[in-house]
Amino acid sequence: MEGLTNQIKLKEIIFTICMTFASVLVFAQANNKHPNVIIINMDDMGYADIEPYGMTGIATPNFNKAAEQGMRFTHFNAVQAVCSPSRAGLLTGCYPNRLGLAHAFSPTTKIALNPSEETIASLLKNAGYKTAMLGKWHLGAQPPFLPLNYGFDSFYGIPYSHDYWPVNYDGKPVEEGNPKAKHPPLPIYEGDKIVATNTTLDDQAALTGVLTRKAVDFIENNKKQPFFLYLAHPMPHVPLAASKKFKGKSDIGLFGDVIMELDWSIGEIMNTLDKHNLSEHTILIITSDNGPWIRFGNHAGSTGGLREGKGTAWDGGTRVPFIVRWPGKIKAGSVNSRLMTNLDILPTVASFTHSKLPKNRIDGLNFADLLLGNSTAAVREVFYYYYDANNLKAVRYKNWKLVLPSNSQTYAGTLGKDGVPGSSQFLPVKMALYNLAHDPGEIYDVQTLYPEMVEKIMQYVEEARADLGDELTKRKGANVREAAQIN
């Protein structure tokens, strides 16, 4: 009788073990089909502002770790070199001018991202994900044009850049007559309600820490279900501010302190994923919305020798860091020189998460096969550099870039220092052809040597003008949708 009892107990133990293993297997399969997604989007962080891309003078161990454990792209471009259009492109997979969007939105801008547009958040929410946004939105200044109306279950952050307030870049209140005097104190939103305001640089210094702690809380509170977190850090956009823990810690001044604090933030998020055994089930993307605002001198970052910066269609404005980590799926320590843009994040994430693509046309391409190791995967060959209202400034084809005649901002003037901006000017730009494989600084015009390449790229120029329009040539695009109007 005792032997029979022992046999029953043994069977019960074996059954329990089998059921536990099956549960773990089902959980693992579910997580492989629906991996968590975290996108961390910096503000104005230049191509060479972290060590994996050539920064000197600042230690960035956590950016380094992310690159060592994932894939680093060397020719990744934001769709435009300014905040609002770049963020629209990332979240929707569309050229922002296709959506009727241009320029950086101010508190009084009368357009917003149309809520009818599907975003990464709305796609993943429909696939059963818990979605959250933290940080800088910049696609609509007030309800109902804040993140809750675009697929996010929760939002905590600021509606636009943190320099839209009645304070100078050095932290001193602006004088009467200054355009910034018309701006309200910087609002902090939770959902659709203002819960606080920032009025001093000390307030701004708390942003990175507060957003990081809220990101950690979100991960821990949702670790048992698929989640999507979009963390849009307001830094290192001016005005720069670092918490007491990091202020004065770098060898290159306040800008370095800010980068060190952002590096700490990356570390906190990766450590949280490791702590809860979520790293292998989480796609972590780290990038920036555009290049550095060079006229701020030592309060701006570095392009690593790329031409110009934010506010231009030169590569210093659009080419930014891009690191994607997914342990066990994406080869650790790999480097990729293929052309990719932030338009391509949406369809790639949709593929990895088995989510449906938007019903309306998008411009992003699916890089999933390339990221998973298929080095011959056919992906992006062409990229349109639009800027201003809807000016087609250049077109890239593979390693070739044809710059079209226009006026362009240049920072070839006096640089600023310690929060006081320098000057910039606008100069005419002639048509030129650059081979970015040999000339990443866009210095040597080779159009007379390669007329056949000019002719080929001009075919793409005409395609872009017919599709999206071009203010420079007074062309209206056939496939442009309308932005939302704010009353």
TrEMBL record:
Keyword Transport: no
Keywords from the UniProt entry: Calcium, Hydrolase, Membrane, Metal-binding, Transmembrane, Transmembrane helix
One Pfam family here: Sulfatase
Annotated transmembrane regions: 12-30
Residues annotated as domain Sulfatase N-terminal: 35-353
InterPro entries from the UniProt entry: Alkaline_phosphatase_core_sf, Sulfatase, Sulfatase_CS, Sulfatase_N
PANTHER family, per database record: ARYLSULFATASE FAMILY MEMBER, ENDO-4-O-SULFATASE
Name used for this protein in its record: Arylsulfatase
Organism, scientific name: Pedobacter insulae
